[in-house]
């Protein structure tokens, strides 16, 4: 089993789109694939399971979800108090873990653990109780059930992102070509290196995925050249902009299921092959 975290502290770089479309191709290729959505915006959850409505002001709630897992991790200590919680833990049944919050998607071999809008409300108590390794331990128990796991993270370096980096084998970094993204990338890499040094010495940066790449424009080409001069692992396959991505979101159909022969779908397949080392 390989666990990949898709991470960028900058929002709007296509993180959820990349997560879901790579996972969908993984599933089509026959890998038993799981997406874990840690972003309270729940974009990956909606993309895979549906329920999105552009006219609605509220996010759909998929139950059970990752909030329930972390709620179990903290054991409602705030409500019970330390002693009550300890007694409750001794008397309660075996923890359900991540297995209890997995949803089978409409697509073969593709499952998802949805996010929840109130996920951030648990962050303080999770940090104060030093639960940073719980996600890693729970993911290890899924080894017999999945071949590939993709984790979508919030656009911030917080408890949930750090938990994902600790749990992952590899990091995929979505990147859009502007000066601010370049600066943010350097900070991101510092955080990944620190996480590897302090928590997960097996973690590696698998590569930078250039998204919304306009090959005819001068600035994107210059920025990509600079990244490579800085010896950053930029994938050769770069994702172009396309209006079909919005249609894919609206219909809750990953590109491989919406229009497998479309240029962007084929580019995603090429990127997947490059990531997996498939010739």
TrEMBL record:
It comes from the Bacteria. Residues 5-204 form the AAA domain. InterPro entries: AAA_dom, DNA_Partitioning_ATPase, P-loop_NTPase. It holds the Pfam family AAA_31. This is Cobalamin biosynthesis protein CobQ.
């Amino acid at each position: 089993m390989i666990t990949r975290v898709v991470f960028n502290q900058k929002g709007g770089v296509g993180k959820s789109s990349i997560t879901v479309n790579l996972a969908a191709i993984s599933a089509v290729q026959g890998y038993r694939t799981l997406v874990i959505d840690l972003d309270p915006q729940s974009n990956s959850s909606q993309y895979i399971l549906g329920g999105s409505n552009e006219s609605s002001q509220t996010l759909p709630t998929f139950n059970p979800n990752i909030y329930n897992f972390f709620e179990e991790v903290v054991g409602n200590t705030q409500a019970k108090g330390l002693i009550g919680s300890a007694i409750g833990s001794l008397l309660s049944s075996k923890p359900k873990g991540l297995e209890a919050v997995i949803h089978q998607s409409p697509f073969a071999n593709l499952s998802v653990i949805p996010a929840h809008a109130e996920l951030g409300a648990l962050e303080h108590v999770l940090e104060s109780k030093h639960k940073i390794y719980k996600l890693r331990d729970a993911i290890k128990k899924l080894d017999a059930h999945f071949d590939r796991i993709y984790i979508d993270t919030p656009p911030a370096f917080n408890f949930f992102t750090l938990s994902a980096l600790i749990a992952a084998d590899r990091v995929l970094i979505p990147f859009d070509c502007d000066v601010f993204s370049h600066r943010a990338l350097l900070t991101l890499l510092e955080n990944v290196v620190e996480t590897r040094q302090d928590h997960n010495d097996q973690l590696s940066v698998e590569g930078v995925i250039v998204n919304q790449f306009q090959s005819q424009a001068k600035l994107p080409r210059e920025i990509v050249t600079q990244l490579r001069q800085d010896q950053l692992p930029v994938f050769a396959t770069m994702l172009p902009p396309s209006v079909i991505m919005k249609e894919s979101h609206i219909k809750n159909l990953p590109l491989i299921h919406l229009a497998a022969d479309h240029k962007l779908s084929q580019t995603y397949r090429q990127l997947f092959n490059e990531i997996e080392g498939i010739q």
